[in-house]
Amino acid sequence: MALTQELYATPASRLDSFVAQWLQPHREWKEEMLDAVRTVEQFLRQEHFQGEHGLDRDVRVLKVIKDKTH
Asked: Which residues in 12-50 are b (16+ Cβ under 10 Å) and which e?
């Protein structure tokens, strides 16, 4: 993988920028994921989990995984 070779060739002083450029999700992707999570949460709260068996406590997202195909 070319990215792996670039990582090994990157000097320690440039690792932070390498991570920011290649490994961290972009702002647009993060915003899309937050929107999708909010949509799912809203659906579950309104349509399926109300009342006695509902989501009466706070719900948190534990992990979001980036799709490598994009």
From this structure: eeeeeeeeeeeeeeeeeeeeeeeeeeeeeeeeeeeeeee
